[in-house]
Structure formats: C-alpha cells, structure tokens
C-alpha cells in the first residue's frame, strides 16, 4: 500500500470538497450577480436577441452544476412562440352615427375592415359591457386587459378621463401565445355618445410579428424511489427592460440588478449547492422565466407545458429582488400569500437561527403580482420570496438599478437561509399544504 498516494488523494478530495462547498459563498454569489447585472447583458429585453446572452449564461451554469435536462426541454431551453400585435392608428377608427369617436381605446390582434353594426348586431359580434356613471369602471376594464376575446366596453362620459390614462397602453404591442390568424382578439373601450345610436362603423388595422421566447429549466432527480416523482421548484425571472436609446443622459441600459438578477443568482446558486449535496429525496426543478416584465408570459407558458403532471409539483418558491434591506432590516424576507398555505410556517420552523434570517408574511399584498401567480391560479402551492422594501426602493424600473446598489451579504444570507428552510420539504418529512384561494 502506498501511503503517500493515499494521503495525496485524501488531500485532493478534501480540497475539492472545500472548493465545491464554497457555492454558498460571497465570492460565488458576487460573481453571478456581477455578470447578470452587467452592461454586457444589455438589459435582458425578452423581445430582443440580447436576452440570449443571459439565457446562455444561465444554461451554461445549469449544465456545469450537473442539472439534468427534461427531454421536452433540450439544452435546458423551454422555447415557444409569442405573437406581438400593434394597431395602426392611421387606418383604425370608430364612427358612431357618422361621427368619429376620439375617446376610444382599441387593442387588437386582428383586422376588421369598415364593418357596420346596429346596437343589436354589435351585441352579437362582441361581448358588450357598460360602466355607468356610478359604477367603478376599472372593475369592468381590468379583468379584460388580462383575458379579452371580442369585448366592447361603453363608458359613461363621467369616466372619460380613463381614456387618456390608457392611451399609452394602447400604443404598445399586445402579446398573445396563440397565433392571431387562428384566434383574432379585440378590445374596444369607448365613451358612449349621448342620444340614440343608429349606426356604428368600426375599422381596425393591426400588424403582427412572431418572436421565440425561452425559459431556462433543469432538474436534480431525488434519491428516494417514491419521492423522486415529486418536485419542489425554485424560480426567478431573468428578463428586464432592455435598452432605451431615447433616454436623456449617458446611461440607457436598464440593468435590473435587484429586479431580477438577484433572483436568478439565487436560483443558480441553489442549483449548484443542492447538486453538490446530492441528498434531496424529492426532485428539485430550477427555472428562470422569460418575459415576466411583459405580463408573466414565460411562467404562464410553463404551467401549460410542465414536463410532469401538475399534481407532482408540491411547492414552489419564486425569487424576486433579494439584494436590499427589508422593512424589518437586513437578512429578513417576506413570502407572498403567506396565509394561503403552510409553506411559510414550514420554513420558519426549519430556520436554525431566526436572529440571522427569517421569513415574514407579505405586508404589500403582492401574491398574484409575480411569476408564482400562474401556478397559484392552477392550484399549485407557489409563493414569491423577496427581501427588498419595494415601497421604499428608489431604483425600481430605473437605469439606476445597478450592481452597486446591492448588498451581497444580504443576498448570501437569504440564499443560505432558504436552503435551510426548505430542508424538511426536500427530505420528505414535510409537504406543503394545498392553496386555500379561489382560482381566477
């Protein structure tokens, strides 16, 4: 027996392990967040080719961490088409009784060429709603912004000011995960003119382009023969607002350091950490979503395209903005929808030292405002975890959301804290309860 060789390999193994354990280190977290929030990422606009820089980085880190690919998501990429439609105002108009209506908003992913309607014909062609003088018009409008097909809303003249507030929204591209050629959609919001309506003429001209969007996803298979069919999921969105060349000043890149390069850093770091440990009885899925800033598009698509049955997804933590001080101080986080399952309670119970790290109920009411929302609406136990005091943050959605505004120690403590807090779930000793909310 060669003792010198045994000693050498023992030391080599020890040094390798020490190097690997340092995934939960300041240096490792700092390296990820520096890259993801750098100017090199060009603001991570999901509708631009620039987003591929971030996506390639994340996929490379998943591969290096040893994550497995889902057969449906080759090279860790869950890609899908999105159709972007925009109304051409020059060839779009609404006339009532021969008079052009100026107080109107038209959202469309399709075309209508100079169609004429009576009121009865309009009700047959569209689902018509009305917000009267004493009604709250936003209760009528807001649900349809998320899910309209062929909808028409008449507003009482008392609500005319709403048209101006929504005009800028109407100038944007409207996204659809369904090809408008197969499923054209229209939303018309107009101030109803006084008097009897005899004739309505509507013309809509829109153009559509197709883009390919990509979520990045991989997994670690659990070690237990039965529990490995169940998945706990860590997610974050990797997109942001891109570059705005019309901005005054030198800086035109929205780096999105806290929102949400910090969250992606959390996902990558936990993938590296749990892969090294290799002791989870349940399987763990790691996902970064595209196009959260455009309306939770990537997360909505994944709910439809999950590579395993929905009932096998037993819990999800979505990371948003982990780099700044909470309203309770440093190293404190909040969990949205805390009261809708016992995931938060499981985490609190498992935290070794709550003076170092803790999880509190969300004080802002943000449960359905991030990428956990599509999963929650599907009945899946899913919550968003954040540290930043969002109401006090001066850099939110500004070019000043830069690496220099972050506290890396806070990020590291939060990531470590979450790793400890979910241990009972990964080991199979605890299973989060089902959500207690109505799905809408």
Main sheet summary: 9 strands, mixed
In the residues, how many domains can be counted?
2
Distance N to C terminus: 69 Å
How would you name the CATH homologous superfamily of the largest domain?
Zn peptidases
The amount of helix comes to 25-40%
How large a portion of the residues is in β-strands, by DSSP E? 15-25%
Descriptive report:
The radius of gyration is 25 Å and the shape is elongated. By secondary structure, the chain is α/β, with parallel strands linked by helices. Helix 3 packs parallel to helix 7 (257-277). It is built from twelve helices and 17 strands. Helix 5 links the parallel strand 6 and strand 7 (150-155). Helix content is 30%, strand content 23%. Mean pLDDT is 93; it is low at 1-20. The protein has helices spanning 3-21, 26-36, 51-65, 119-125, 137-146, 161-170, 257-277, 297-305, 343-350, 373-377, 408-421, 423-427; strands at residues 77-87, 93-96, 99-100, 104-108, 112-117, 127-131, 150-155, 174-176, 186-191, 200-204, 206-220, 231-237, 283-289, 313-319, 332-335, 358-361, 382-386. The strands form three sheets. A nine-stranded mixed β-sheet has the order 8-1-11-13-12-14-17-15-16, with helices on both faces. A four-stranded antiparallel β-sheet has the order 3-2-10-5. The chain has two domains: 23-84 and 212-427, 3-Layer(aba) Sandwich (Aminopeptidase); 89-204, no CATH class.
């Amino acid at each position: 027996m060669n003792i010198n060789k045994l000693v050498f390999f023992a030391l080599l193994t020890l040094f390798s392990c020490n190097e690997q354990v340092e995934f939960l280190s300041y240096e490792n977290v700092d390296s990820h967040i520096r890259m993801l929030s750098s100017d090199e990422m060009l603001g991570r606009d999901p509708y631009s080719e620039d987003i591929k820089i971030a996506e390639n980085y994340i996929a490379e880190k998943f591969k290096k961490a040893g994550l497995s690919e889902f057969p449906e998501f080759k090279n860790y990429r869950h890609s899908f088409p999105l159709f972007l439609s925009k109304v051409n105002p020059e060839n779009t108009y609404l006339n009532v009784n021969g008079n052009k209506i100026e107080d109107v908003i038209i959202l469309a992913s399709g075309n209508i060429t100079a169609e004429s309607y009576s009121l009865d014909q309009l009700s047959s062609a569209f689902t018509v709603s009305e917000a009267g003088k004493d009604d709250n018009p936003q209760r009528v409008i807001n649900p349809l912004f998320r899910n309209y097909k062929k909808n028409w809303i008449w507003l009482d003249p008392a609500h005319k000011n709403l048209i101006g507030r929504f005009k800028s929204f109407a100038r944007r591209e409207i996204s659809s995960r369904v090809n408008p050629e197969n499923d054209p959609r229209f939303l018309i919001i107009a101030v109803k003119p006084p008097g009897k309506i005899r004739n309505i003429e509507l013309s809509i001209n829109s153009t559509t382009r197709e883009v390919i969007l990509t979520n990045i996803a991989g997994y670690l298979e659990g070690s237990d023969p039965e529990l490995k069919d169940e998945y706990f999921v860590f997610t974050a969105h990797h997109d942001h607002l891109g570059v705005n060349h019309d901005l005054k000043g030198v800086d035109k890149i929205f780096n999105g350091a806290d929102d949400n390069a910090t969250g992606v850093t959390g996902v990558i770091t936990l993938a590296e950490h749990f892969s090294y440990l290799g002791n989870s009885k349940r399987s763990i899925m790691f996902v970064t979503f595209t196009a959260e800033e455009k309306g939770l598009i990537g997360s909505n698509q994944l709910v439809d395209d999950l590579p395993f049955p929905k009932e096998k997804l037993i819990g999800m933590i979505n990371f948003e903005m982990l780099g700044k001080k909470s309203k309770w101080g440093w190293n404190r986080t909040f969990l949205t929808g805390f009261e809708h399952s016992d995931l938060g309670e499981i985490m609190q119970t498992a935290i070794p030292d709550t003076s170092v790290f803790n999880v509190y109920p969300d004080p802002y009411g943000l449960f359905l405002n991030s990428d956990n929302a599509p999963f929650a609406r599907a009945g899946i136990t899913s919550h968003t975890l954040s540290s930043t005091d969002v109401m006090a943050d001066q850099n939110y959605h500004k070019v000043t959301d830069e690496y220099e505004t972050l506290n890396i120690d806070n990020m590291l403590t939060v990531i470590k804290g979450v790793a400890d807090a979910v241990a009972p779930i990964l080991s199979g000793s605890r299973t989060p309860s089902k959500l207690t909310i109505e799905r809408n």
